[in-house]
Amino acid sequence: MRDDESMLAIAREEALLGKAEGGVPIGAALFTVDGQLLGRGHNRRVQDDDPSMHAETAAFRNAGRRPHYRDTVMVTTLSPCWYCSGLVRQFGISRVVIGEATTFHGGHDWLAEHGVTITLLNDEACTTLMRDFIATHPTLWFEDIGKD
Amino acid sequence: MRDDESMLAIAREEALLGKAEGGVPIGAALFTVDGQLLGRGHNRRVQDDDPSMHAETAAFRNAGRRPHYRDTVMVTTLSPCWYCSGLVRQFGISRVVIGEATTFHGGHDWLAEHGVTITLLNDEACTTLMRDFIATHPTLWFEDIGKD
């Protein structure tokens, strides 16, 4: 069984792939609660010109169709935005493991109120990655979260 | 300027395309507040084996990248689920026009609480379409909303 840090390492690898491609450096992966990898992905706004593919939606898509998600864990480098929090709530994903919520605070408190188990790891590497990205690409970042 | 009924007619066309393809018959379209069509789409779970493409996310994707959405209206044949409601909230879409909320009641009350203008048209054609689909394809429907 994978621990939270090793699951986050996979999401962070995805974020770094996104960075290397010139994209928004956020990564995610969907696992079973036993740590089996179901799907992994990263934000694809720049790469595919696709505003609908946040890291969590990409991991969810790559996991393929499933009858339910109550035995799954979404692992993401950054606190999930409302769009991705809505995904977690609608599909009944039981737990979210978050790299950091320092550079952006999304909907994870709302998810906790609705029974989702939230684990915030305060990972320095994730925080540094996003802080550098926001400082160097503010327009792209604000586009990605619909703020201008 | 298009009125609400003519915008809904486009979303309903999308839902019927989805039905004809053997998919989940929900359609959506994103317009400017002046009624200019930005993107239209329908649920693609069956067609693309893609659980992330609900009608609203498909319309959003097909509208392409935009710096902000405060001048846009999401029109959908069915009350938006939490995933699609989260999309509307995160990206600041200012208004949602809904065909029906009889067969499924999603997150539109929550959106209204957060300042989104909600118009519910109680369209009989949309209701009949979903009622027939749920009766004939219950497993596919519950998969689409993560319930089993």
From TrEMBL, chains A, B:
<keyword id="KW-0378">Hydrolase</keyword>
<dbReference type="Pfam" id="PF00383">
    <property type="entry name" value="dCMP_cyt_deam_1"/>
</dbReference>
<dbReference type="GO" id="GO:0004131">
    <property type="term" value="F:cytosine deaminase activity"/>
</dbReference>
<feature type="domain" description="CMP/dCMP-type deaminase">
    <location>
        <begin position="2"/>
        <end position="118"/>
    </location>
</feature>
<protein>
    <submittedName>
        <fullName>Cytosine deaminase</fullName>
        <ecNumber>3.5.4.1</ecNumber>
    </submittedName>
</protein>
<dbReference type="InterPro" id="IPR002125">
    <property type="entry name" value="CMP_dCMP_dom"/>
</dbReference>
<dbReference type="InterPro" id="IPR016193">
    <property type="entry name" value="Cytidine_deaminase-like"/>
</dbReference>
